[in-house]
Amino acid sequence: MPSTCTWLDNIKMKHALATVVFSALFALLFPLFYPSLSGSAEYITVSGCSISNVGYLTALAKEYERRTGVRVFVRGGGSMVGIEDLRSGKVDLAAACRSRDAGDPGDITFIQVAWDALVFIVHESNPVQNITLDEVRSIYAGRLTNWRRLKGLDAPVKVFISRSRSGLSGVEASTNKLVLQGVEPVKTPHTFFVASSGIVEQMVEETPDAFAATGITSARKRNVKILKVNGVTPTNGAIIKNRYPLKRPLYLLLPKTPRPEVKQFVDFVLSSEGQRFISSQNVISLLDMK
């Protein structure tokens, strides 16, 4: 009998399969690559914010290894994954794209290392160029449901949202704070929750009618279209000068008693050399803001 799967069925199956495969591979390979986790001076392990990892952290880890010989293993999964991994001692260091929350462990130190901006992305083929914050709120409220209202094609707006199983993702927390003012997105037949911002970005790359919020740090390295907001293009200059309204910090998170090698890595990230390298990745460094 021929398959009768709808587009929604395919999306759900693809997401479920990706989640299962990722979890299985990570469970199998993580102990092999990180044999003693936080016990060896030759390795530093990091997990967390997908936006940081794609945008600058993976490249920075390679640069640090080139300079020092110390290997830094980086994986994504989202800010909440990083916090939980750090809490349980699975990693030496975590990355986050949200500020400290009341439920976070009190002995974890949040250290800002760069700047990001919340942006809204669509498929490269989407003719829409600009969106207002009021229109974004209407999309999340379930009132604006067709691209035609934004001078796009006659097609449903398929909204992809990153949501961790254990709490708000960094992007969702930023969206709620900076745009939705604490109002929860309305679940519609065209709202899809996935595990991380990395998966959100991948789905937008592949889905012509998609809409999502993410960080510009990683969005620039994806095959997606970044929308203007209220007519303002989110260039680094516009973000730095606050002409673009949705700036937010990026953090590295340290445990209460980090190993000396971990502290040295963070010191490098905060150094002039480390900050210049971050700038070279088209990411707004702390130096750029001075």
Can you give keywords for this protein?
eleven-stranded mixed sheet, 290 residues, two-stranded parallel ribbon, D-Maltodextrin-Binding Protein, domain 2, 13 strands, 2 domains, 39% helix, alpha/beta, globular, single chain
How would you characterize the overall build of this protein?
- There is one protein chain.
- This protein starts with 6 loop residues before the first helix and ends in a 5-residue tail after the last strand.
- It folds into two domains: 30-115 and 249-289, D-Maltodextrin-Binding Protein, domain 2 (3-Layer(aba) Sandwich); 116-240, 3-Layer(aba) Sandwich (D-Maltodextrin-Binding Protein, domain 2), CATH 3.40.190.10.
- The chain has ten helices and 13 strands.
- The protein is 39% helix and 23% strand.
- It is an alpha/beta fold and 290 residues long.
- The longest helix is centred in the first third of the chain and has 27 residues, at 7-33.
